[in-house]
Amino acid sequence: MNERLTITALGPHIGAQVTNLDLAKPLSDGQFEQLYHALMRHQVLFLRDQQITPQQQRLLAARFGDLHIHPVYPHADGVDEIIVLDTHQDNPPDNDNWHTDVTFIETPPAVAILAAKRLPESGGDTLWASGIAAYNALSEPFKSLLQGLHAEHDFKKSFQEYKYRKTEEEHQRWQQAVAKHPPVQHPVIRTHPVSGRQALFVNEGFTTRILELSEKESDALLGFLFTHITKPEFQVRWRWQENDMAIWDNRVTQHYANADYYPARRVMHRATVLGDRPF
């Protein structure tokens, strides 16, 4: 039985397509090792035509580590670890900004796995950007400036109160989530715990300020970094087909879910693997 995966890079900095693998079946150690090394190298992997249930997706994600249960998003029936991102006319998209998932906790996710379950007729691409490529493109004096700086990441920046007032129960759930997730601090430059590569670790979705700087300095620097990180040179763009899957290294990437299809419907299932404390 041939276990060799075919891995085709989609660009010099980020993104690869993987073929010759069925993620609905339990992976052998050899298959998982190849997948893992490809993820460390390419930062985001794409696979076409993966017929996978929420239970199988949870099983796959658990190979990478312990799973996160999201405090706000709904989840698949009986599978709390799989969140359902169901965008439609009565539920506008909220991922159409550049963000790294769940950086508002002390140990932000290491890996995320997204499965396309229902897609609009056209549109709805997702873009990923490499924090490693963005960091490497900076001048040495600018890298020196960023060394040792820390940024605050706040749940409320992306999950604003007014969005969660449709019912009393929803509003209570939001209040509990806020109480449970006070703002946290992470380094502006993050060292990858496996590869040792350095990456920018601030994102427009959750980063509010740089602690060591004045408010104006912080705003100016974050404004530059948010723009810099999202240059097309550091990106890969994926045009979804039904049953596609994406696996990404959340420690060193950001992504943007293009909302051009709205108000058509789009349903995605996500599993999120807990990571370690950024350093």
UniProtKB/TrEMBL annotation:
According to the UniProt entry, its GO molecular function terms are: taurine dioxygenase activity
Oxidoreductase listed as a keyword: yes
What Gene3D superfamilies is this protein classified in?
Clavaminate synthase-like
| UniProt keywords, alphabetically | Dioxygenase, Iron, Metal-binding, Oxidoreductase
Give a single Pfam family match: TauD
Superkingdom in the source lineage: Bacteria
In what residue span(s) does the TauD/TfdA-like domain sit? 7-272
Matching SUPFAM superfamilies: Clavaminate synthase-like (SSF51197)
Assigned EC number: 1.14.11.17
What InterPro entries does the record point to?
Answer: AtsK-like (IPR051323), TauD-like_sf (IPR042098), TauD/TfdA-like (IPR003819)
Q: Which family does it belong to?
A: Belongs to the TfdA dioxygenase family.
Q: Which NCBIfam families match?
A: PRK09553.1
**Annotated PANTHER family:** ALPHA-KETOGLUTARATE-DEPENDENT SULFONATE DIOXYGENASE
Q: What is this protein called?
A: Taurine dioxygenase
Q: Which organism is it from?
A: Pantoea osteomyelitidis
